[in-house]
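Hey, quick one: can you model this chain's 3D structure?
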Amino acid sequence: MGRKRKGALSEVATSEVTTDLYSLVAQVGNAKRNPFSLIVADPPWFYTGWKGKHQGAASAAYSLMKTGDIIRLPVGALAAPDCALVLWGTWPKLNDAISVMEGWGFRYVTALFVWNKTYEKGTAYCGLGSYTRSGTEFCLLGLRGRMPRHSTNVKQVITSPVTKHSRKPEEIFSELDLLWPASKHPHRLELFSREPREGWVTWGNQVKDEQAADFSPIGDTPAP
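Sure thing. Here's the predicted structure for all 224 residues.
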């Protein structure tokens, strides 16, 4: 496949990669593309309380964003009237995650998944933390309209090893397929993605070097 111009949609198997979220919004607004009924987002949260190497490790791995800049992303314009938002976060960012969800036009419902982290050998992971050493992350569910589940057997806790920095367990996508099968909800969007994903439109600055999305702040309003 030839090199695509920056900002273009490129096809990888049955997936699409985009670097331009506003182009995607225009396609939905002009009825050239169906809005999405399932959106997964893993924002690169900025931690104001972190200093030195801890914040640096994250910023070295990917561009960080303040909460206000995340809220200003036009995600609501991409969502179908009936849509599920699956939003990753860490416990210090719980209030921020709910603010992002509401800012994008979704109502908070529950913690859809809790990632119980382990090391590769299966022992409990021991991370950083302000008071206790953290070992879990959450994945919140926000809804717009109605999105009834198609399975009652999906468990909330996912026990899976930590791999690359901030990379989330792949198991979540098979679980989402049980809750909302692609046959019923074929229009799917992954934000802040790391790689193309079959059956999904993906946007992120780590998908491919030549297709790096721009996470620059939007507007001049100070972010929280």
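One thing worth noting: The first strand starts at residue 10 and ends at 12.
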